[in-house]
Amino acid sequence: MEQGSSEFNRHRIFGIIGMGLMGGSYAKRLRQIGVQEIIGVDISAQVCVQAEKDGCVDRASTDPRILRRAEVVIFCLPAAAMVSFLRQYGAVFRAHALLTDITGIKEPLVPAVRQYVRADLDFILAHPMAGREGSGYAASRADIFDGANYIIVRREENTAAHLRDIGHLARALGCAHIVTVTPAVHDRYIAYTSNLPHILAVALVNSAGLHRRAAYFTAGSFRDASRVADINAPLWTRLLLANKENVLHEISSFQASLQGLTQALRDGDEDALLTLLEKAGQRRREWLHERN
């Protein structure tokens, strides 16, 4: 299958660390677009066997030394696990390899990357805004990148050539929109577009209104608003705490917005309520237009 940027180099050897939902999806898409050699690393020998059986990797192992030939390495691990891997196995990477990741919060990672990544390597932080319900290798799919946003998070140490390489990778995966920002800007936007919606979904489902009989009164709006409340709790605990100052700012802004709606209802102010509802509809239409 030919897809994506014509400048993407399918002849490079790719390594993927962590063959879960995202790592498995990377492997399946990279294989689908014609990457000739893919190496996988996972703590589960069973996952390694299954990935080899599926043909999305050429070799997979629980031993990180298998990565010695990889020219591009994609970390599909939580932030703490990634830092631990860099600290313990940073010497295994091929000279001048290009490293990248998928972690959801960037600014706290920068000092660790500077400390544990060798000077001859280039680590470009990245965040593919892709995913689906479920977890683990069994939930991985080649098509989760289709039409997704892909955020490249540049650091001063990154080379222009490698930044372009990651952009070509994103296009080849099928991502539709690619943006390059600093770690601080990334984390501020993610607090609103990702962290806050997860918090709101959790609050909605944890509120007193949800009881057994409520299941018979739900339709699409409740399903959409509550979908991400089925959450990977340990992962999201770490993500929210890692970005807590930005998240707290967005919660305060949301509380102010909610207070405006509350006051309009309390006062029975039809004009004020109508204005707020119409404003929301207009802003969402503008957002969809910008996104498309």
TrEMBL record:
Single Gene Ontology BP annotation: tyrosine biosynthetic process
InterPro entries: 6-PGluconate_DH-like_C_sf, NAD(P)-bd_dom_sf, PDH_C, PDH_N, Preph/Arog_dehydrog, Prephen_DH
Pathway assignment: Amino-acid biosynthesis
Domain Prephenate/arogenate dehydrogenase stretches: 12-292
EC number(s) reported in the record: 1.3.1.12
Keywords: Oxidoreductase
Leader sequence segment: none
Gene Ontology MF terms: NAD+ binding; prephenate dehydrogenase (NAD+) activity; prephenate dehydrogenase (NADP+) activity
Family of the protein in this entry: Belongs to the prephenate/arogenate dehydrogenase family.
Protein name per its UniProtKB record: Prephenate dehydrogenase
